[in-house]
Amino acid sequence: MKKAKIQDKYEKKILKKLSGKAKAVAKFIFQDKEIIALQDIANVVSIKRLGFNDHGPVHMLKAANNAMRMFELLQKANIKMNMVKEGLGNTEDSKIAVLIASLLHDIGMSVTRDNHEMISLVKAEPIINRILEYIYDDDLNKKLVMKTFIEEGIIGHMGTQKIHSLEAGFVLIGDGCDMEKGRARIPILLSTSPRRGDIHKYSSRSINKVKIEAGDDKPIKIVVKMSHSIGVFQLEEVLYPKIASSPVKPYVELYGNVAGKENLQYF
Fold it and tell me: Which residue range is the domain that position 111 belongs to?
């Protein structure tokens, strides 16, 4: 299946942020036929079968791009990642774990929505093994360490499981930050009849932009720009809880900006 232009766009964005082994991992994932197929199937199930928003390749790329941006900002602020602080790996290893988890976190949606983070973990297991074998060869200890961080990122991305590492926290918030109106476009085009649960789609249509940038008082500032106050539902019910339960929270400023109104500050 030919990739959409927006997929190419986000793959290039991610690759620009990477070098060395991390870049090699990204290229491996972007070309892996099994990963591509599972991401596409996840999107079909999410949109056509369940009537949800995008949970496919573009979403996973955006989540990874968001996670990499936050990783960069904490790195610039000289905040050590858990893998480094705990003497289990270096910064590059840490980045690779975040990248892999972000790009695989929703492949469980290829089966169902309920407990899909756990299904993602099961389906990702052989894929993670292949990636780590490719990049770390016969370093068994490093591969085992990497798997634990990647697995925490995947099972923690819904905020339903308690997570403790910054690495997993990036995956959680990176996923939550993909809430711009383009993500709701496809299901709205497929069905314009109102039904229970559509508040998520219509509130996300009001999200014009989610900006992740250097903060004023903390390393990371997230600004959610909205065209209408209905977007506050998306911010408070989806993104806010994810940040609140993330180990990255102490380093984040969160603002909501409704056009023509004063900024809302959450953290």
Answer: 5-176
